[in-house]
Amino acid sequence: MSAAGRADRALTAVLERVAGTRAEVGERFPLYANPETGRWTTTRRGSWTGGFWAGLLWLRARWTGAAEDRAAASAAVHRLAPWVSADTATRGLVLWYGTALAGADPGAAALRERAARACLEAWDPVLGTVPWGAALGGERVLARVDGVPGMVPLLAAAGPAGSRAAGAHLHRHLDLCLGDAGAPLVPAWRHTAAGWRPEGAPAPGWSRGRAWLLLAVADALARPEAERWRPEVLASAADRLTAGPGPLVPPADEGRAAGPLDTSAAAITAVALLKLARLPGPGARRHGRRAGAVLDRLVSAHLSGAAGGRPAGMLLDGCYDLERGTAVRHELVWGDFFLALGLAVRVGLVDPGEA
To answer: Which residues, other chains included, contact 133 with Cβ-Cβ below 8 Å and sequence gap of 6+?
Structure first.
């Protein structure tokens, strides 16, 4: 079977799984699923992952073209509305990825516009960021890599002032988290009276730290505003974040190679690489090949089949929180989303610049 045929078959399985999940969770939001049974742990408001469930529903609606699926996706977007006013930089993850694939849906467009204005109002010119915020607990004045993807295009949607804030937000995180050449990536920083200080958690070896930052850089380079966002610095960051072969599916903690894997980090990385592969330059072919290899590995080694008493189409071996021992070998809703998005790009259902 050709690569396109394998991708199409895998996408079918993942999006059929979405239909089963929707029947199971109703108006709640899936978070992670038991790898043996496929049963979901859910949340009422979606937490920071709710946008990925809405995004999966939009992907299914585009795949089937069914009015029922479009209605389900639109209803999920409506349930994300309380996050517009939430004090958290993860509004980028929730409200960009939950609306970006909605096409001409008026409710999604209106919600995205409101979210863009709210995030611009939250931008702190002293910190140079939209602060991490207190909505999910912890220190408000943090800068974390998972507060960058989604937030950059969301801010940019708020007009010229939003575009300037988006560039500043991205570069502040690059300066802090990526640091100097050769330094380890530090995913979280706290602002104090003495300046920015690194946080201990997430730890520097956190697999999704590199993936989230690469996705944010790839998104920025693909946007028209990139010429105003110091593209040479962004290109250098992309080179650093993609340097070296590394494993196709990284361990959840890069310092614990024998520990659990994190397929969700691999899926995020694959989407970022597909975006980079569409840009002109000598690395485009390399990024495309690497993205294809990652997707092939996820589909061949980590996607559940119909046997074994669990549903087909589950992306297994995702690690939610290794330090707390939470869902360390599970199906994760954002892992499913980025795998489905990568496969949808590969079969031509979605353009990588859409989300």
So the answer is: 86, 87, 88, 89, 90, 122, 140
Contact 67, 353 (CB under 8 A): no
Spatial CA neighbour of 267 closest among 310, 231, 215: 215
**Tens digit of each residue's pLDDT (9 = 90 or more) over 293-343:** 999 999 999 999 987 789 999 999 999 999 999 999 999 999 999 999 999
Position of tokens 């989300």? 355
| Longest Cα separation, the chain | 60
Round to whole Å and give the CA distance between 351 and 313: 22
Residue 121: half-sphere exposure toward Cβ, Cα within 13 Å:
10
Q: Please give the Cα distance from 283 to 271 (Å, whole number).
A: 15
3-state helix, strand, coil in the chain (%, to 5): 55, 10, 35
Q: Give the residue among 322, 274, 334, 324 at the shortest CA–CA distance from 146.
A: 334
Q: Tell me which residue has tokens 């706290």.
A: 190
Write down the pTM of the prediction.
0.97
Rounded (5°) CA angle 95-98-102: 120
Distance CA 68, CA 188 (A): 41
Q: Give CA separation, 40 vs 17, 23, 98, 321, in Å.
A: 12, 11, 19, 16
